[in-house]
């Protein structure tokens, strides 16, 4: 597939589809997987959850790091975790966080302003700043806790958390590619990983302590609104008794499960959304026309926070966010295990129990059969015109079926609120090649090199400093 030569995974899967068709198989080390690229078969897979369950091989790998969290469970165990966290990030529940998101975005704008020698021209590491912003926001929304990740002070306490999360993710990124037994040994003897976990544990202990200090009545009241209250409020009275029960009878979460859930959400709640935000900044810095249209839709109001209704009315901005998620989906694929022999309806491909199926989210977004306007173009207007009625399963940045992303409503809402606020105050400009970091594998040339997004550095020009 060319991975070792530096071919990004999304380019490899496009090449394989072009060469072998909509369904093909390949090996990742000893693991045989079947890639699926056509929309009908993908819709079918998501609709048949009794045949296509969350991938067991992927969960075996995840269990090396998070053996007791929602992502690595199925069946009754999954239901027990899901009832405690699932509803908290759905629909109307996320709307109450609007001002908090604006406040954090303003904090970031203040940091940028304080870094500017020349107030009309600031050179920034946008990827890092987007990560810090989303982490800060999630600290408040999920844990009611100020993680203080926004700021210049590199020696600060919060910097320990940022560094530890980065170390933790770097180790995981490598270990996920290894066979499970080797990954376990690698993680066990990796001092960087263990140190990172110790620091993260310090933070999670403080987050839990702060919540517990509110008293059991308040926790009970907040349980339906806030993740941390729901987690702390569901702590099992006697873990040994619960553990002795059959899976279906267990209730609540053990202390270890609560720790892992917080860790999972620290990562899942910020990484992907910040990737999408970084891509928004990058793509609009290259497309001033799109920025101008967003600003026109925002009108003259450059100062005041927009209300929910005003935010809701920004239809062009919705199209831009859709287009960012289509053009550079933060997750390019997801995976399912086949639990009994089955045949895919459109391609006719025969699958067998225990096969692993890769759903190619990225390929769907680039398939000319499904998009009337050239899918290789970044063109938000497609969602107002020819591509408005695209097949719903051709754009699935959050996956699909019963294990689809639980944070999608929050992510879309965060993106819209942050971008609207940024566009009220800032214009992003392309600083030219001299201001971009040299990419290690390939020079940036969309769409092929999206997997190296974290190495891009962008230039922001502040057009409004007040
Ligand atoms: C733009 C932002 C995001 C993108 C593109 C994204 C994408 C995804 C994708 C593709 C999956 C796999 C779904 C499947 O297999 O069908 C997933 C799962 C998940 N996401 Fe997100 N996500 C985002 C934001 C978030 C946020 C903000 C949270 C937390 C609040 C979150 C929490 C999770 C969790 C916990 C899972 C695992 C669900 C399960 O195993 O049942 N995600 N996400």
Automatic annotation (TrEMBL):
Family membership: Belongs to the cytochrome P450 family.
Record-linked PANTHER family: BIFUNCTIONAL ALBAFLAVENONE MONOOXYGENASE_TERPENE SYNTHASE, CYTOCHROME P450 FAMILY 4
InterPro entries, per database record: Cyt_P450, Cyt_P450_CS, Cyt_P450_E_grp-I, Cyt_P450_sf, Cytochrome_P450_Monoox
Top-level taxon in the UniProt lineage: Eukaryota
Name recorded for this polypeptide: Cytochrome P450
Coiled coil: none
Organism, scientific name: Rotaria sordida
Required cofactor names: heme
SUPFAM superfamilies xrefs: Cytochrome P450
């Amino acid at each position: 597939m060319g991975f070792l030569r530096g071919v990004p995974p999304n380019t490899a899967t496009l090449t394989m589809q072009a060469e072998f068709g909509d369904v093909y198989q390949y090996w990742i080390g000893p693991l045989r997987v079947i890639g699926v690229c056509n929309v009908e078969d993908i819709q079918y897979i998501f609709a048949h959850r009794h045949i296509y369950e969350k991938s067991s091989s992927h969960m075996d790998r995840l269990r090396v790091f998070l053996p007791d969290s929602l992502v690595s469970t199925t069946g009754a165990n999954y239901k027990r975790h899901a009832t405690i966290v699932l509803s908290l990030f759905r629909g109307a529940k996320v709307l109450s966080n609007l001002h908090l998101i604006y406040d954090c975005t303003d904090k970031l704008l203040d940091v940028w302003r304080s870094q500017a020698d020349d107030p009309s021209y600031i050179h920034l590491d946008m990827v890092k700043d987007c990560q810090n912003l989303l982490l800060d926001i999630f600290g408040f929304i999920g844990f009611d806790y100020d993680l203080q990740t926004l700021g210049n002070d590199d020696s600060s306490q919060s910097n320990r958390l940022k560094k530890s999360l980065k170390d933790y993710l770097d180790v995981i990124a490598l270990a996920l590619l290894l066979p499970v037994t080797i990954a376990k040994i690698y993680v066990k003897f990796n001092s960087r990983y263990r140190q990172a976990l110790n620091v993260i544990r310090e933070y999670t202990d403080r987050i839990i302590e702060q919540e517990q200090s509110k008293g059991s009545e308040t926790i009970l009241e907040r349980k339906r609104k806030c993740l941390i209250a729901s987690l702390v409020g569901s702590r099992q009275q006697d873990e040994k008794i619960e553990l002795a029960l059959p899976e279906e009878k267990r209730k609540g979460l053990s202390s270890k499960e609560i720790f892992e859930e917080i860790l999972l959400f620290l990562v899942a709640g910020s990484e992907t959304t910040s990737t999408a935000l970084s891509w928004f900044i990058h793509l609009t810095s290259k497309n001033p026309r799109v920025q101008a249209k967003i600003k026109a839709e925002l009108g003259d109001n450059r100062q005041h926070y927009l209300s929910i209704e005003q935010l809701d009315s920004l239809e062009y901005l919705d199209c831009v966010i859709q287009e960012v998620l289509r053009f550079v989906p933060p997750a390019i694929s997801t995976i399912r295990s086949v639990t009994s022999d089955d045949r895919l309806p459109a391609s006719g491909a025969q699958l067998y129990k225990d096969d692993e199926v890769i759903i190619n989210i990225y390929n769907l977004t680039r398939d000319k059969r499904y998009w009337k306007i050239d899918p290789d173009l970044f063109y938000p207007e497609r969602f107002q015109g020819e591509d408005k009625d695209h097949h719903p399963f051709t754009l699935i940045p959050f996956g699909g079926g019963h294990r689809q992303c639980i944070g999608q409503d929050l992510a879309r809402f965060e993106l819209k609120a942050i971008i609207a606020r940024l566009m009220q105050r800032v214009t992003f400009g392309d600083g030219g090649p001299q201001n971009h970091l040299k990419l290690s594998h390939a020079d940036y040339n969309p769409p092929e090199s999206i997997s190296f997004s974290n190495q891009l550095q962008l230039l922001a020009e502040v057009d409004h400093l007040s």
